[in-house]
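step=encode ok
step=design start
structure_in=
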């Protein structure tokens, strides 16, 4: 069985290469890949029929296919609203966007496609703390999932892109992600592939251009919605869809845990996010906010393009300033977008810097009142959750797993559970229960964790300039 699975995975990788090279028949390398690909493809089909019976060598795997709208919990009305009038969904455009999403040629050295960091088999993430782009360079931020990103009111952890279309352009041009030098360079590369050139003409009725590329990619991403979880079934009336522990966890989520105040859920907006920005203390672990904000203002004052802000966010220590890089408002320092909570057990690790390994660690972070800093959201306070309540909360979060990810998520849940019994780096029970007070100057309350240099700050953060 292990052999069969390995074989299928290897086969899929090769099948992917094969179909990509089919788009560049002009090159002799492409031709030889097709021959090799076909040979492997046949072997693969025989092997998978033999091993699994039904599995097909589909490129780049069934988890990348557009999803069905018949899922329990699918917000049909909301879906209608989020498809932009100037970029309607068509099967041809979606197929083009899919090909682009999986095409390494969109990167400077031909090694990195969107799926490198947003792989369907990893819940459209890379499961790394922070992402690695061309020439093995690591950025500062964790790759969020593409799943349900169509419903986000802004894109990126700091909301710096208003739409999926605008978002898609940034990684292509970011020097350490895909590293293309300019939109013109990307367009020239795509135009040179006859199949792409034909498709663009057919679909958009004009020359290949960067905006249409982004439109096609965004259309593909808008096919990646996932619901139909045990929780969705529970909310639709099936009392037996989730365990008693998960039901208790749902109560903690709504009550004592205060999660619902930011991770909002209702039947018309079932995304578990208010889509607002909050400083919950994640980057306070390592950022000394005020000097960093001053440094950022110095750079942003010269007028920053979206590409420059992207580079500050991905490539510099100013990344931890979050939403502030976009608005320059002091109250946005260290603020990040409330992330949705679906399929968390395939999108680990957690938070914008991937700093937490398990769901227990993220809940320990909230339980002790986050990490104190002058910009901490008022909604982050010590919670006093017991161990059992934390276990229940994780059991609830685990019910937010869509059917196609259940086996993977079960494995990850087991691994995290095991780890949580012995290894809890963020746990601070006394702080969570409000027992140990650490009264840093200017804070005046019982807190468990204070970010470096935050309590030695000489200046009033409220006076920090913005415009
Ligand atoms: C080198 C890794 C890497 C590559 C390649 C990459 N991304 Fe990302 N992606 C990230 C990271 C990291 C973030 C978060 C960055 C941030 O918020 O500042 C992100 C954010 C996103 C988001 C926002 C999701 C949300 O919830 O806000 C979308 C959508 C997305 N990427 C799509 C794409 C597309 C489309 C491509 C290809 C054109 C692509 N990405 C290429 C790493 C990558
Ligand atoms: C004040 C608003 C707020 C409250 C209350 C809140 N969250 Fe969050 N949550 C956020 C924000 C903002 C982020 C992203 C923070 C970051 O990465 O810097 C986040 C991120 C997360 C993540 C990581 C998601 C990912 O993809 O990495 C999990 C899990 C999570 N929250 C669970 C919870 C739970 C469980 C509770 C209740 C105990 C809770 N949150 C309460 C705002 C909140």
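sequence_out=
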């Amino acid at each position: 069985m292990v052999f069969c699975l390995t074989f299928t995975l290897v086969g899929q990788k090769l099948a992917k290469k094969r179909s990509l090279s089919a788009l560049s028949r002009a090159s002799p390398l492409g031709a030889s890949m097709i021959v090799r690909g076909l040979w492997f493809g046949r072997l693969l089909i025989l092997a998978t029929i033999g091993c699994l019976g039904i599995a097909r060598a589909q490129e780049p795997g069934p988890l990348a296919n557009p999803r069905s709208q018949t899922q329990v919990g699918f917000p049909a009305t909301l879906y209608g609203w989020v498809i932009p009038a100037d970029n309607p969904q068509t099967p041809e455009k979606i197929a083009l966007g899919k090909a682009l999403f999986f095409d390494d040629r969109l990167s400077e050295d031909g090694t990195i496609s969107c799926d490198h960091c947003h792989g369907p088999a990893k819940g459209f993430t890379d499961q790394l703390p922070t992402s690695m782009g061309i020439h093995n360079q690591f950025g500062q931020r964790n790759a969020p999932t593409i799943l349900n990103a169509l419903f986000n009111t802004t894109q990126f952890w700091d909301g710096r892109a208003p739409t999926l279309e605008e978002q898609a352009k940034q990684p292509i041009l970011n020097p350490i992600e895909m590293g293309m030098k300019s939109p013109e360079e990307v367009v020239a590369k795509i135009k040179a592939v006859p199949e792409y050139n034909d498709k663009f003409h057919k679909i958009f009725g004009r020359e290949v251009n960067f905006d249409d590329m982004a439109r096609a990619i965004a259309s593909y991403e808008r096919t990646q919605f996932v619901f139909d979880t045990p929780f969705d079934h529970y909310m639709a009336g099936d009392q037996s869809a989730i365990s008693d522990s998960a039901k208790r966890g749902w109560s903690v989520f709504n009550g004592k845990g205060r999660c619902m105040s930011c991770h909002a859920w209702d039947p018309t907006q079932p995304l578990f996010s208010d889509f607002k920005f909050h400083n919950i203390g994640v980057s306070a672990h390592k950022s000394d906010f005020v000097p960093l904000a001053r440094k950022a203002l110095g750079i942003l004052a010269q007028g920053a393009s979206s590409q420059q802000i992207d580079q500050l966010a991905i490539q510099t220590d100013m990344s931890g300033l979050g939403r502030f890089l976009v608005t320059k408002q002091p109250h946005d320092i260290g603020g990040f977008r409330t992330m949705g909570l679906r399929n968390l057990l395939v999108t680990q690790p957690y938070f914008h810097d991937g700093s937490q390994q398990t769901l227990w660690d993220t809940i320990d972070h909230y339980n002790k009142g986050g990490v104190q800093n002058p910009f901490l959201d008022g909604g982050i306070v010590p919670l006093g959750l017991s161990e059992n309540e934390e276990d229940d909360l994780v059991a609830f979060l685990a019910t937010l797993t869509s059917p196609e990810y259940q086996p993977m998520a079960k494995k990850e849940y087991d691994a995290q559970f095991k780890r949580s019994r012995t290894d809890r780096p963020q746990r601070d029970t006394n702080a969570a229960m409000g027992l140990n007070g650490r009264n840093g100057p200017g804070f005046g309350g019982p807190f468990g964790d204070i970010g470096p240099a935050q309590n030695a700050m000489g200046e009033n953060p409220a006076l920090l300039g913005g415009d």
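step=design ok
step=annotate ok -> The chain has three domains: 2-59, 82-221, 230-463.
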